[in-house]
């Protein structure tokens, strides 16, 4: 936040474009509003042991995108769910979620109900082999999609040209452009990576946590980046604080330049939903009543 160039924007600015959505961010944003506040507490929360609330979040959020003539592509993180439920899970579909220190990353996996509804509504989605933000960013860098929607700044490290982030407690968004950020700080992409590594990322703990400007200053003052990185390798720790497992600058560069991504080819186009099939699934499989089904499907129908 301290070094990026951002400006307020609205979804309407991206009319006619394709947005790759980091699903962990997207469904975490909509979860409480949809499942807790909007729908009856006696609604079924499970379908054959699969969560329903994520699917509800998907359906309620789609009209916002379609209304602005935006073609969405959802990117999911694949994490194996736990075999045994957590007794202290705060929300229903974290019951079998992986144990992780980041609550938002407990929402990444695609639930079967969500996967089916994405198909019925003809919305593209992609399951990343490692990180959704990496997959979405590389598709954006290659031009398959136009923009990445995520609150994870790692999208810049993976080379996403444009990222939109949700401004907290506001209806507006923030647009972050990689080139503008590099130009403002007079740094190269490699120097941005080194600055982030010295500060901290999901993959490494650097010596300048919470002092990113100090880290950037050291990087920019280095006469030889190869030599500088070699000297700083001993200062890196893995995210848990261990030294022995700490990655090196070269390994981290390799990861951000060329992360594991899906081989799925995308050719996004505006959705052409199969509403009868969606209606049948919501009614026959999930047992939702007609009022709830209309509340879910009618706003999507009116925007398609």
Using brief descriptors, characterize the structure shown:
single chain, alpha/beta, 7-stranded mixed β-sheet, two-stranded antiparallel ribbon, about 15% strand, elongated
Overview of this protein structure:
By secondary structure, this protein is α/β, with parallel strands linked by helices. It has twelve helices and eleven strands. It has helices spanning 23-38, 53-67, 112-120, 132-141, 154-157, 178-185, 189-199, 212-221, 225-232, 249-257, 275-285, 290-303, and strands at residues 6-9, 18-22, 46-47, 50-51, 71-76, 124-127, 147-149, 162-166, 173-177, 200-201, 204-205. The strands form three sheets. A seven-stranded mixed β-sheet has the order 1-9-8-7-2-5-6, sandwiched between helices. A two-stranded antiparallel sheet has the order 3-4. The protein has a two-stranded antiparallel ribbon with strand order 10-11. Helix 2 runs parallel beside helix 3 and helix 7 (189-199) crosses helix 10 (249-257). The radius of gyration is 21 Å and the shape is elongated.
Brief account:
The chain has helices at about 25-40, 55-65, 110-120, 130-140, 155, 180-185, 190-200, 210-220, 225-230, 250-255, 275-285, 290-304; strands at about 5-10, 20, 45, 50, 70-75, 125, 145-150, 160-165, 175, 200, 205.
